[in-house]
Amino acid sequence: MLGRWVRLVAGCVLLGGGSALMVLAKLGLAPWDVLHQGIARHTGIPIGTVGILVGLVVLAGWLPLRQRPGVGTAVNVVLVGVTVDVVLAVAPTPHATAIKTACLAAGVVGMALGTGLYVGAGLGPGPRDGLMTGLSARHDRSIGGVRTGIELSALLAGRLLGGRVGIGTLVFALAIGPLIQAFLRWFAIPERVDVPMPTLTTPAE
Predict the structure, then answer these.
(1) Structural domain tally of the chain?
(2) Does 191 map to a domain?
(3) In a domain, 20, yes or no
(4) Is residue 205 part of a domain?
(5) Residue 11, domain extent
(6) DSSP state, 123?
(7) How many CA atoms are closer than 13 Å to the CA of 71, on its beta-carbon side?
């Protein structure tokens, strides 16, 4: 059990850290983080805190879907967002193109690695993952189709609010799936783990 807790905490910290690195790179964010950044720009609330608040709102959407949160759900909601805010508070903003590119690459890899650890913990889905699986079951739609619809909706809403979309958004979209699969194989996730694949937000996921 201790090993699963270590995976959960380490995974959430890596998700938050990776998300923060993508924010620092200023080359484009993951879809949910585009939404978080857009809201942050209009409210003045730190982006990680916005991610926590959005996660809580999404959790409320679980109620009619009869989704059941786990302890990992609560840890995911809070720890990812807190990590984002802490990293952004202490890390300097890069200006050189090479450093920005390195932050982008490290951010995407960090989020994928964090996802491998978080999924491997098997202690409950994050709020966005539960929404995805709940909507899929409720409306008899494929997970892939529901996930795509949710991600595109978050991306569009975030862009309208002024969130940053760029080459980093495209890199994330193309690389995150294969990287997650690679890390899941590396960590040799037990077959008993049935947590759905996260949609990767870090509240900033």
Answers:
(1) 1
(2) no
(3) yes
(4) no
(5) 2-186
(6) S
(7) 8
Residue 135 lies in a domain: yes
Query: d(Cα 189, Cα 64) in Å, to the nearest integer?
Result: 31
User: In 26-92, which residue ranges form alpha helices assigned H by DSSP?
Assistant: 31-43, 47-60, 71-90
CA distances from 64 to 130, 143, 147 (A): 12, 18, 18
Answer whether 108's CB lies under 8 Å from 47's CB.
Answer: no
139-143: which pairs have CB atoms within 8 A and are 24 or more residues apart?
143/196, 143/197
Name every residue whose Cβ is closer than 8 Å to that of residue 15 and which is 6 or more positions away in sequence.
80, 83, 110, 111, 114, 115, 118, 200, 202, 204, 205
pTM comes to 0.84
The three-point CA angle 73-76-78 to 5° equals: 110
Residue pLDDT tens, the chain, 205 long: 778 899 999 999 999 999 999 999 999 999 999 999 999 999 999 999 999 999 999 998 888 887 788 888 899 999 999 999 999 999 999 999 999 999 999 999 999 898 878 877 778 878 887 787 788 778 888 766 777 788 889 999 999 999 999 999 999 888 887 887 788 777 654 544 444 444 444 444 5
**113: nearest Cα among 33, 202, 190, 12:** 12
CB 189 within 8 A of CB 120: yes
